[in-house]
Amino acid sequence: MKKRQRTTLQRLCFLAKQLEDSKHYALNAIQPGLIVSEKKFVTFGTNQFTRKEEDDVSEEALKEVIGELHKLAKYLNCNPLQAALFTAVFSKAVNCSVDFDDIRRFFDIDTIDAQFLQHDFMQLTKTKLLELTDSRHRDNYIIPKEILAAIHNNLPIGEIKQEQKERTRYDFVTTIGEWVEDNDIKTFELLRKMDEEENNSETLSFVQMVKKMIPDGRDRVMFYDICYDFISSRRRVSDINDTLNDIFDSVSERFMWGKQLMQNEHELIQLDLIEIEPERLFSDADMKLTEKGRKLFLEDDFELFADEKSKDKRLIYPEDIPEKALFYNEELSRQLNLLKENLQEEHFKELQKRLEENSLPKGVAAIFHGLPGTGKTETAMQIAKATGRPVCHVDIAGSKSCWFGESEKLIKRIFTDYAEQCKKATLKPILLFNEADALFSKRKDSTFSNVAQTENAIQNIILEEMEKLDGILIATTNLIDNLDGAFERRFLFKIKFGQPTVEAKQSIWKSKLEWLPDEDCQTLATKFNFSGGEIDNIVRKVTMSEVLDGSRLDLAGIEELCRHEKISGSRSEGIGFRS
User: Fold this and answer.
1) For labeling, which of 310, 358, 396, 516 is most exposed (least CB within 10 Å)?
2) Which of 497, 513, 533 is the C-terminal boundary of a domain?
3) What CATH code is carried by the domain that includes residue 30?
4) Alpha-carbon gap, residue 100 to 117, rounded angstroms
5) Strands 472-477 and 430-433, how do they pair?
6) Both 91 and 20 in a single domain?
7) Residue 3: inside a domain
8) What is the pLDDT of residues 500-509, one digit of tens each?
């Protein structure tokens, strides 16, 4: 009587029991010489394979196992050795996932012999017969539910496999990104897992291109993680410190990679795949994909993100600058209009062209100096708004580092970053140094002081960068007398902001308190010698009083606030009269 054919499920159950009993002998029967550890031999046909004395594995039993393995291999479209490994996973992964050590123990082989099985085992994941789970500690594998469904229903597996969702580059970087964020995975293990995942995803053109462009695995895993952050975070950026801490166990490696990144010397920056984007100048720095990096990663989906060209967080854009009315005397107004007109794009391009033709520096630098509260900074912002230019506002406090030698690098990076912004921007931004005397002050005797040496080195860097400036620089200061003389000729415009005239002050009062009668505005302007900033303070107090009392102050109430504005009461009285 003809023996009834086993179903796929029956075949797997039979093989699982027989393989576990015959252990590594079956593996050597499938592929002679595979297991090379020195043990006693037993003959199977014309081949010899290892055997322990106490084990009882007959040649007849092995023949049946081998026959069933060839049938299973045909069903799975793999080789018999891979079919045996698949069976081992099927046996052990009924209620949980398994790792490669579980398979090694299943066949009773040592770690050295297990290395000969690694390639075939990984092939099972490449052909989607096994699936890598999201393990927090090690590689764990399961049989995909589609494959199990085909086995249980004795259906052709090829049809099921074709219906499986094709793995995408987004799936790939998500897998890598989740591993990077797993603090339990060490650097060497992360790189090994990435290498395996790359092999499993070798059909993806994205992976092929990245491996070709970026030879160092550490650089690749960083790039993949930045791509993962691009699709998983709202801001589409990666924090440098967090990324380095996630990838590298070694502090020295974190420091080395961080230094390369912050000095724009890293391979990914040199390849123009990523760029550094500080949240503010010299604050916590982020990394993000460049346009080239986005095109490499997104491929045909690049256009979907075309409207996602996020604003540079270091810049203040003209549309974000509130429009304010400013009032100047005739001379100041004339100087500012000259500067503003020259910064209009059509004039600025022509100006730079003429300067270059005459071998003169192409940059336009201006310094606004005068008493506090006279509108220097606000004027710079309003000029930016009027000319449609973003502002790169330098954080002076952040540019001075307590670490010896770091301040010079930070200052250098101001101009390096600004030069990059000028290249990318439609209109060159304005580089604004507010309270610039902190950096542009007179040089000191550096004979005995490291601090003086550092500050002098900073000034030398600024002088050199101003000489080759190819953009717009505006500096403001309340302490013009502290400015080093070497900077004077570098400023094309030197504009002094004095106390506003009576007429200007009257206009300021009226613009701030529209409900105040004109004659009262004139009285306040005549009686109190305030700057625009000081008038702003009074207006804020008037508003506070209105909120608390529900009524507006009269002229007497406003004058009372004015008398207490300055620390010295006598200084609050201006060129007018006393009441």
Assistant:
1) 358
2) 497
3) 1.10.10.10
4) 10
5) parallel
6) yes
7) no
8) 889 989 999 9
Hunting for tokens 């009587």 — which residue is that?
A: 1
- Rounded to two decimals, the pTM is 0.49
The Cα 117–Cα 101 span in angstroms is 11
Q: Which two tokens stand for residue 372?
A: 């506090």
95-152 pLDDT per residue, tens: 567 888 888 888 888 777 778 888 888 888 888 888 877 555 567 788 888 888 888 8
Q: Specify whether 236 is located in the same domain as 348.
A: no
Q: How many domains does the chain have?
A: 4
Backbone phi, psi, residue 406, to 5°: -80, -35
Closest CA to 495 of 347, 324, 323, 338: 338
Residue at 578 is within a domain: no
Boundary of a domain, candidates 111, 145, 163: 163
Q: What is the identity of the amino acid at 400? A: K
- Residue for token pair 């092995």: 62
Contact 485, 515 (CB under 8 A): no
The angle at the Cα of 393, spanning 387 to 398, to the nearest 5 degrees, equals 175
Residue whose entry in the numeric block shows the structure tokens 């409207």:
307
Widest CA span in the chain: 128
Buried b / exposed e over 458-474, threshold 16 CB at 10 Å, is bbebbeebbeebebbbb
What is the DSSP secondary structure assignment for residue 488, as one 8-state letter?
G
Exposed/middle/buried for residue 432 (C-beta within 10 Å: 0-12, 13-18, 19+):
buried
